[in-house]
Every structure is written in structure tokens, then in C-alpha cells.
Fold:
Amino acid sequence: MPIDIPDVVIDRLPLYYRLLERLEAEGRSVVSSQELGTELGVTPAQIRKDLSYFGRFGKQGRGYSVHRLADELRQILGLDTRWRVTVVGIGRLGRAIASYPGFEGQGFDIIALYDASPSLVGTEIEGRTVRDVSSLREDLEREPVDIGIVAVPGEVAQEVVDTLVNAGVQAILNYTPNRVQVRTDVELKHINPVLFLQSMTYHLKRQRDER
Amino acid sequence: MPIDIPDVVIDRLPLYYRLLERLEAEGRSVVSSQELGTELGVTPAQIRKDLSYFGRFGKQGRGYSVHRLADELRQILGLDTRWRVTVVGIGRLGRAIASYPGFEGQGFDIIALYDASPSLVGTEIEGRTVRDVSSLREDLEREPVDIGIVAVPGEVAQEVVDTLVNAGVQAILNYTPNRVQVRTDVELKHINPVLFLQSMTYHLKRQRDER
DNA sequence: GATCGTTTGTGCTAAATTGCACACACAGGC
DNA sequence: GCCTGTGTGTGCAATTTAGCACAAACGATC
Structure:
């Protein structure tokens, strides 16, 4: 299997997968790239090409078996196993993340929560006890996790990320507004709603000024 | 001023702007594209080219005036005015959004909160009273907003978005896992952390299997 | 079993995006 | 005022990404 599959392609697969899950739930058995495309707002050709990196899952004249394709994507994306996640930073955002049912439902087990505040440590969130972030490092030695979600104040983001990465965490989802650096072999994604808003205002301003 | 500036460029500007703000706060007066690039993990040439779409802000041999460039970007991105925002859906996520200081600090005024649950309507969050979503439509007529942040359950996302758009809201930030459709002249961004995790597991699986 | 309407997989082309590399400009020292 | 070191702005080339368009395949129908 070729190693050089573009990242843009990988980033689209979860989108396809999510739609297929919905169609599966609706009881649809077959779907065409045309239909997937209109639903997602992308061209059918792009979907076919993206999928063709991984194999030939469709049947000419018919389309794709919804169940079969969903299954293949599960395999490809590694969603056929469960992944161990830890959340560091249990402020309002961290709590929202820890309580969000969408993670567990998709195979992501939030196995531990950490915070630095003594008033939070020891409290329970959705049946999980908040632990002291000072024991993060040693805890990870005993019970490693695959993914770290970081929702601490921006100033300590890099520090927390370093701790996670040094303890072997391979993927970081950074909810803080600060960009952090990691080794190139560690997966890293940033979620910063302000950046989204700021690129939207660019267009809003132009719409407002005229046209 | 040319209309056809690529969206990829626009999406990078807030990134540059955020770094410049930090440098401004640190008291730096001049910075080179080289330095901006290493800090952000992009090539200096890309930064220079991106900026050149909008004008010539640098000085050869010196670099960019931090204050001047930050100012220009504020202008370009429309961050020299305040923007009116409403949040619909005041569950755990909506509350985290409503309380996040990063929005107000960047010129985004959250002027109203809405929810459908009778137990929430009337309660106060950060000094704002949660209103009933059934009055959203008429409220928007009286006090319009520029941006709608949607944090309702996925099933009603499209419905809420339609209400917002029909009432003249020009930009939507959708926190629900459901993709929604809007007119092409409305700005729309999706924030779905699960999609991020799912593309990360693709790489995690490959790292694990070998290499 | 031939024909027809569909839809895939993909070679090839077009478009978008990135980045090299250099002329030109500026500041500082001599 | 000339030289030197540095860093911008940009023409151009390379690379990446998207998408057209068609042969091949499949199922249904007669």
C-alpha cells in the first residue's frame, strides 16, 4: 500500500465516513459518488479518486455498498479499534469536552482527566475523577494513551504538550489559542474558533462595503 | 484592490495576525518574514507572497514594522470594528463558548444567548440572560447580528441555521457534528473535533503497524 | 444473449498553490 | 558617498490538487 497519500485526501475521509454512517443508520444499502457529492458539496470525481487510493470499492452501474464502504473506511482510518484519550485542563471547555458523548460513541475512550487547580482535583466529571496534572507524566508510564486533548490556559500549552509527547503520546489535539511545536512524527491539530471568526470577518467586511 | 485572493491565503492571515499581536505585546518593533516563518512553521516566501496580495508593508533589509503590519492586518481582516455575535444552544459547549474571554478580547461581542430548554431560559451566563430560541427570529429583526454560533444538538442544526440566515445573519460558525447547507453568499465554517481525531488515527494506525 | 442506462476507476489536462532565486532597496559603517 | 550585509517583492518554475471525460463493467429488460 502506497505511503504517499496526500493529507488533503486523508482529511476528507472522515467526512465521507460520517455521511456513510448516517446512510447506514437510515437503512440505505447503495449510494453513488454523485449522491455523496451533492450531499457533501464536493464533486463526485473527487470522491471516486480519493477512494481509489485505497482500492476499488464500487460497482459500475450501481455505486457503492453503504455498509461495505463504511467498513472499509473504518479499517482505513483505524476506527475498528478503540483509542485511549486523556484530557488536560478541566475548565469550562475541558468539562464540555469530557462530557461530550460524541467521542466515546466514535471509539475514543477518555480514560483520564487532569487539571492543576486544587479545587478541581478529586472532583468527579461523568464518573471520572480529575487527577492532579503533576502526576500526568508518571501516570502515562503506567497507563499510556494514544491521544492528548489540551484545553489548558494558552500560556502552559507548550509545557503540557511537551509532557504528553515526552511520555509517548503520538497525537495532540490543541484547543488552546497558542500554537505549539512537536516532533514531526507526532500528529498535531489546532482548534481555534477565533481564527475562524477572523477569516470570516474578512469576507463580511467586503460584503458590507459593497456588492 | 483585486477580488480574487485565494481563500487559503485569507485563512492564513489570522495566524500571522495572532503572532504579530504577541510580538507587539512583547515590545518587538521589527520582524522579518524569516522569523515569522520559523515561528509558524511556514516558509518565509509564503508569508511575503501572502502579504503582497494586499500591499507592500515591509522594508528591504529591515523586515516588517510589527505595529504597522498588525495594523494593516486588522484593517484587512476587518478587526478594526466590533462584530455582533449570538450563540444558539447553551448546553455545556454553548456555556463554554459564552464564557470564553477570547471572543470579546478580539472584537467579537456576544450580545445574546438562546436555548430551547425552559429550565435554561431566563438564567444568567456571564451577565447575559438566556432567551427562548422561539423568539430568535423576531429578536434578530430588532437587533441584528453579524455572526451566529450554533451549538445545538445536531438534529436541529439546519433548522437553527436557516432561521439565522433567513433573518440576515451573514456568517455561521457551526459547532454541531452535522454539516449544514447555506446560500453561497453566507460564510460557513464547521468545527468538529471528531473529524480531526479520525484523521489523526489514520496516521496513528500506520505508525503503530510499522515504521 | 443483445441492448440500454448507469456509474465506477483512471489517464490526462487544467487549475491552484507553493517556493525558488534574484533584482532591487535600505541601513550602517567606513 | 561607496560598499556590505540583509531582507523584501515577485517573475517564473515546480509541485500539488482538482476535475474532465471516457472506456469498461454491471444489472435490468426484453
About this structure: The first helix of chain B runs from residue 7 to 25. Residues 6, 8-9, 43-46, 49, 59-62 of chain B lie near DNA strand C (CB under 10 Å from a C1'). Chain B touches chain A through 55 residues (CB under 8 Å). Chain B has a mean pLDDT of 96.
